[in-house]
Structure formats: C-alpha cells, structure tokens
Write a structure and sequence with these properties.
48% of the residues lie in helices and 15% in strands. By secondary structure, the chain is of the alpha/beta class.
C-alpha cells in the first residue's frame, strides 16, 4: 500500500470517479482520520526501531487515539472507515463487530479451563494488529459487556488503536441490556481512547437510491442479472471489500454471488433452496443493510420447503426494514397463485408490493 495515500485522498478518488457524492461532514471526519493515520505510522516506525522495541517490552506504549463514529444508517459511516482502512499501510484488522464477537466466543471456548484467557487473546491480537476497525458496534448481552471490557483493557494497554462505527452514541451502546453498570467501564475506555464523532447528514443514501432503483425485476435473464449487479455496486458505494467468499451462519456455510460488509447477493437456490431456520434470516437482517436475491423461480414449481423459506425471508426482512431486491421468473402476482400455502402467501405478496412504496422506504 502506498504510504502517501491518505483517507481523504482515497475518498476524493471515489468522488472523482463519481462513485460517491462528496460531503463536507464526511470530509471533516476524514481529515481527523488523516491525523490518526499520520500518528499511527509514526508510532509504528518508532515501535519497529531497536529502542522502540526495547521500551515497548519494558512498558507498553499508550495507544494512538482512535475514532468512534456514530449516526443513523445509510449516511456513509462504513465507507468512511473503509477509506481509512484501505489507505493504512500498517498491521490492521477490519471486521463486522458481530462476526468478531462470534470468533471471540469460539476462541474463549478453546481456552476453557485456562486462567485469564482474555489477557492472552488480547496480547495476541496486539502482536498481530496495531489498529482494529469495527463496523456496527453494539452490545446487547451482559456476558459480552464484561468480556469486551476486559479484552479492551488489555488491547489499549498494549497500544492498539480502535476505529469503529455504530448507530448509537457510546453512552447508549448497552442501554437495553441487563445490568447496564457492567458496561460503564467500557464506555469510559471508549471516551478515553477514541474521538467521538456524530455524523448527522440530511440525506439517507439508501432511501434515496431505493427511490431510483427498482427492487423487483422479471423475467430472470441477462438484463435482470446486470441490473442486480448495478444495484449491488450502487448500494455498496463501490465498496472496496467486494468478495465471493461464503458466509457462515451457525456453523453452516452459505454460498454468495457477491457481498460487501453491508450488502449481500444470493442466488435463490443458495438462500432458500434448502430448509433454513428463521434464525438464519434474523442473523442476515442484523448483518446486512441490503439483501439481493436472483433467480426467484415460479414458486408453484418448487418444493413446499422452498416456498416456506421464501415466506420467512420476506417476513423477517419486512419486519426489520431491510430492503430486498429480487429478480424473478414471473411477476409478484404470478409467483404463487395456488398451492398449500396460498393463503399465507397472500401476505407475502402484499409485503413485496409494499416494500416498493415510498411510505415503507421512509421507515427504513
């Protein structure tokens, strides 16, 4: 990575390519991240020197102050963090917060019976990464509140910098959890080791795009496939972390066509072609802001299990206000005109139609 590349330069390159629209509020945050990057590079060079390694061994250094960026959905928080991450030429980790927690619990299970496992895990992470970037920071479980506090005490003591996004301010990270006092030490650490920014834009990019991009295409063909690819790129703001790597939910892999940290695209056969629990779809609704599904078949020609899976998918995304973009063999009205679940599917039909309306979009 070119060490001269900065977050603001990366951002301007996206604006110049008309991948995103420039915004002064976003630029203010990126200017701060420029300073964070400069301080991190200087700290990395110092720690890599002989004297720096010696002092670090004797007494871990205070971390560079990071960033806690919060605000409503769809206003560019993830994109800003990615501009920082992509331009940073030092050891770094970027993860959706929910996925990081899952990996942390798996590692803790492997350490069962050992004393103070979070100290070892924290020190290992600090040896690997100088910066940790989280997307969608939110804590709802009392056990997680305690674990995160102890882990980040170690990470900050070892000089790790935290850059994270969230939909809520730090003081509300755990407001709905049991025994909120458990998380107060973590909130204090966040205020001490990060600069808290509230990104408040008048535009909500997802809402604006949903008003201009159709969300139901038929018939399924080369043109509709191209339309979904175009929609994926628009909603992801040409996200630099596009991948075809499968996702894992509850120990099971699901094949994807493409995904970023915020948008995911499945083929119908992958996401509904086999029986899936509602927990799978609930997890997707927590992880992604927009979901695309291509090649939805004429449902009277598929198994009952696939019909039920599709009904559950639509119900959960509708309730969670997650946009669903589809390509299908036939129109909504022709999808399932008869069959064992016709009465229930009438609600699905209605919801698919409602999810295209401005009133529904405004509630996202």
């Amino acid at each position: 990575m070119n060490s001269q590349l900065t977050p603001i330069k990366y951002y301007h390159s996206l604006v110049d390519k008309i991948k995103i629209e420039g915004n002064s509020d976003q630029e203010e945050v990126l200017q701060y991240l420029n300073e964070v990057q400069k301080n991190l590079i200087a700290a990395h060079q110092w720690r890599s020197s002989f004297l720096g390694r010696l002092i670090q061994w004797l007494k871990p250094s205070w971390p560079v102050k990071g960033l806690y960026l919060w605000g409503s959905v769809g206003i560019g928080k993830t994109m800003i963090m990615d501009c920082f991450f992509q331009s940073l030429p030092i050891p770094k980790l970027r993860s959706h917060f929910h996925e990081f927690l899952q990996r942390l619990h798996q590692e803790l299970n492997e350490w069962q019976g050992q004393a103070n496992p979070l100290i070892y895990i924290g020190k290992r992470l600090a040896r690997q990464y100088q910066v940790i970037c989280f997307d969608e920071f939110l804590v709802t479980d009392a056990g997680d509140a305690v674990i995160l506090t102890e882990l980040f005490k170690v990470l900050f003591k070892c000089g790790v910098c935290l850059v994270t996004t969230s939909n809520v301010e730090p003081d509300r990270l755990y407001e709905r959890g049991v025994s909120p006092q458990l998380f107060l030490p973590m909130v204090k650490l966040i205020h001490l080791h990060t600069q808290v920014f509230h990104l408040s834009l008048m535009k909500d990019y997802r809402r604006r795009l949903l008003k201009t991009i159709p969300v139901y295409y038929y018939p399924s063909n080369e043109q509709s496939e191209h339309a979904l690819w175009h929609a994926l790129q628009r909603f992801a703001d040409d996200h630099p972390l596009l991948t075809t790597k499968p996702i894992e939910l509850y120990g099971r892999e699901i094949v994807v066509k493409q995904r970023t940290e915020t948008v995911i695209w499945f083929d119908f056969a992958a996401i509904c072609g086999r029986p899936r629990s509602q927990q799978d779809y609930l997890a997707l609704a927590k992880l992604y802001k927009v979901i695309l599904v291509s090649n939805l078949p004429h449902l009277i020609k598929v198994s009952v299990d696939q019909v039920v899976s599709f009904i559950n998918l639509v119900d959960i995304l509708y309730e969670a206000h997650i946009p669903l973009i589809l390509s299908a063999a036939v129109s909504i009205e022709q999808l399932y005109p008869q069959g064992a679940f016709r009465n229930i599917f009438q609600r699905t039909e209605s919801r698919l139609i409602e999810m295209q309306t401005e009133e529904w979009i405004l509630n996202i």
